[in-house]
């Protein structure tokens, strides 16, 4: 089996991640922060250590500003709920995933917010001047760091700097679902207020764990409220972090798996990226040489991650995906990838594309097999 | 040996304090919070009373409310200091 669907979820997972999750389930999977016995304290210690690791990885000054969520979607919803008020204006890039679009479209449909879109080229790269869209009631700008559809990378630091120079009180949320673990992310250098990430993609953790980095002192509303293990005498949500945003029992096996994943990827990010880009270059070369295929990517390796989409003029993406699976045991993802807006931007809506995404465990021979398979499938 | 208990707002703060103090060589135990002290957080740091000033100096970098208690009788605690 050849797995080329790492943008959906990375697979396989490093042995260190598997061991960390198994050790947790076997040795200390008590409820962190809810009891005072040895196992609960050990569990709390593991959560703390993981929070510190995440903070160091994204250069967050205080680890209490790392909020564990179940995924990036929950983190994005949490950030939107934390700051948006009725009559707010929100600006988004044209490459957003439905994790961003659905919560915002819901609020728009309810008549609570208005939306504007930053202009992009057909490669998805932002071309418009975001400051032209900013209004007196603009509360939030959301930028997708790296697209899950065509792998285009946005210059988030320079875009954030422009927004902040225009009006420092506008909140910037970066969706780093695809980029965390692939590209270095220093939240101090980016200067954004929120960063949402997931653990199960390029951080090589298990599914069901992600996080929201809070990099702002402004007052925020809680999203999910409930038991935190702290201030148990009070029926009101605590005001301090991370408890304010982390109600309910956390995903301890996921958290320790995320920590192990970060520890796996962090020391070799450059090496993995070099390999992934080598694979993606070969895929793009191979696909570009086949008559009838359109390749969707950033058109610049400097602004590209290991994700690329393509379509064929006469063979549907679902047929290509099915034949790759059935005849060659190659796993890819076809369709709209939960990102209809991004597909509209790059011109592949509503038919969608075949998406191929490489990872740390992709080998040269996997790409050889994929290229041969696609040549055979598209042979008339 | 006399012991004091350090009460902090959250479990995260207790874990952070534990890390700082252990790195500085302070002997401590994290134990369940006696109900007589607080329902605030599930755990507290128990430390030797002679380390009080050293502990508070080390924890200056932790910008949260700190309360220190000592046990004077069965189920009776008095607050030694609040910062």
Number of strands of chain B: 5
Structural class of chain A: alpha/beta
How many domains of chain A, as an integer? 2
Distance between the termini of chain B: 24 Å
Average pLDDT, all residues of chain A: 97
Order of helices and strands of chain A: EHHEHEHEEHEHEEHHEEHEEHEH
Q: What does the overall shape of chain B look like?
A: globular
* Whole-number count of domains of chain B: 1
The ordered H/E elements of chain B are: EHEEHEE
- Which consecutive residue ranges of chain B, at least 5 long each, have pLDDT under 50? none
Helix content range of chain A? 25-40%
CATH topology of chain B: Alpha-Beta Plaits
Gyration radius of chain B, rounded: 12 Å
Our Rg estimate of chain A from Cα atoms comes to: 21 Å
Largest beta sheet of chain B, briefly? 5 strands, antiparallel
| Largest sheet entry of chain A | 7 strands, mixed
CATH H-level superfamily title of the largest domain in chain A:
Type I PLP-dependent aspartate aminotransferase-like (Major domain)
* Count of helical regions of chain A: 11
The biggest chain-chain interface is: A-B, 27 and 20 residues
In terms of DSSP E residues, the strand content of chain B is 35-45%
CATH class group of chain B = Alpha Beta
Question: What can you tell me about this protein's structure?
Answer:
- The complex is a heterodimer of chains A (380) and B (83).
- Chain A has a seven-stranded mixed beta sheet with strand order 2-8-7-6-5-3-4, with helices on both faces. In chain A, strands 9-10-13-12 form a four-stranded antiparallel beta sheet, covered by helices on one side. In chain A, strands 1-11 form a two-stranded parallel sheet.
- The longest helix of chain A has 20 residues.
- The two termini of chain A are 26 Å apart.
- Chain A has two domains: 120 residues, Aspartate Aminotransferase, domain 1 (Alpha-Beta Complex), CATH 3.90.1150; 252 residues, Type I PLP-dependent aspartate aminotransferase-like (Major domain) (Aspartate Aminotransferase, domain 2, 3-Layer(aba) Sandwich).
- The model of chain A has no long low-confidence stretch (mean pLDDT 97).
- In chain A, α1 runs antiparallel to α7, α2 runs parallel beside α7 and α9 crosses α11.
- Chain A has 380 residues and is α/β, with parallel strands linked by helices.
- Chain A is 37% helix and 16% strand.
- Chain A contains eleven helices and 13 strands.
- Chain B has 83 residues and is of the alpha+beta class.
- Chain B has a single domain, classed as 2-Layer Sandwich (Alpha-Beta Plaits), CATH 3.30.70.
- Helices cover 24% and strands 36% of the residues of chain B.
- Chain B is built from two helices and five strands; from the N terminus they run βαββαββ.
- Chain B has a five-stranded antiparallel beta sheet with strand order 2-3-1-4-5, covered by helices on one side.
- Chain B is globular and about 30 Å long.
- The model of chain B has no long low-confidence stretch (mean pLDDT 92).
- Chains A and B meet through α2 of A and α1 and β2 of B.
């Amino acid at each position: 089996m050849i797995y080329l669907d790492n943008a959906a979820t990375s697979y396989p997972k490093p042995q260190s991640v598997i061991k960390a999750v198994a050790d947790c389930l076997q040795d200390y999977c008590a409820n962190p922060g809810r009891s005072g016995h040895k196992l609960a304290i050990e569990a709390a210690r593991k959560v703390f250590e993981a929070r510190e690791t995440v903070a160091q990885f994204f250069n967050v000054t205080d680890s209490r500003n790392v909020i564990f969520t179940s995924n990036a979607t929950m983190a994005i919803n949490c950030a939107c709920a934390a700051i948006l008020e009725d009559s707010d204006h929100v600006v988004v890039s044209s490459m957003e995933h439905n994790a961003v679009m659905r919560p915002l479209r819901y609020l728009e449909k309810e008549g609570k917010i208005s939306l504007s879109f930053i202009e992009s080229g057909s490669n998805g790269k932002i071309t418009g001047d975001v400051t032209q869209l900013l209004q007196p009631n603009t509360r939030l700008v959301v930028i997708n760091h790296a697209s899950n559809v065509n792998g285009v990378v946005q210059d988030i630091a320079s875009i954030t700097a422009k927004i902040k120079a225009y009006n420092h009180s506008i909140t910037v949320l970066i969706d780093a679902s695809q980029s965390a673990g692939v590209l270095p992310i220093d939240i101090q250098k980016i200067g954004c207020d929120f960063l949402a990430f997931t653990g199960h993609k390029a951080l090589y953790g298990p599914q069901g764990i992600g996080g929201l980095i809070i990099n702002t002192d402004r007052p925020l509303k809680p999203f999910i409220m409930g038991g935190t293990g702290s201030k148990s005498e009070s029926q009101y949500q605590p005001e301090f972090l991370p408890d304010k945003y982390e109600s309910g029992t956390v995903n301890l096996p996921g958290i320790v798996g995320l920590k192990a994943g970060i520890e796996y990827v962090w020391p070799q990010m450059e090496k993995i990226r070099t390999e992934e880009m080598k694979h993606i270059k070969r895929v793009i070369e191979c696909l570009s040489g086949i008559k009838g295929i359109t390749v969707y990517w950033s058109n610049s390796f400097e602004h590209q991650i290991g994700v690329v989409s393509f379509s064929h003029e006469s063979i549907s993406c679902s047929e290509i995906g099915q034949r790759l699976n059935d005849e060659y045991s190659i796993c890819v993802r076809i369709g709209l990838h939960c990102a209809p807006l991004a597909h509209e931007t790059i011109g592949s809506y509503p038919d969608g594309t075949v998406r191929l995404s490489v990872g740390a465990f992709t080998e040269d021979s996997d790409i050889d097999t994929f290229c041969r398979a696609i040549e055979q499938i598209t042979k008339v | 040996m006399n012991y004091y208990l350090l009460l902090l707002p959250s479990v995260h703060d207790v874990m952070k304090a534990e890390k700082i103090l252990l790195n500085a060589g302070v002997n401590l135990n994290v134990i369940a919070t006696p109900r007589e002290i607080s329902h605030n957080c599930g755990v507290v740091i128990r430390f030797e009373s002679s380390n009080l000033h050293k502990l508070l100096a080390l924890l200056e970098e932790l910008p949260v409310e700190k309360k220190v208690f000592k046990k004077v009788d069965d189920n009776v605690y008095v607050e030694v200091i609040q910062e």
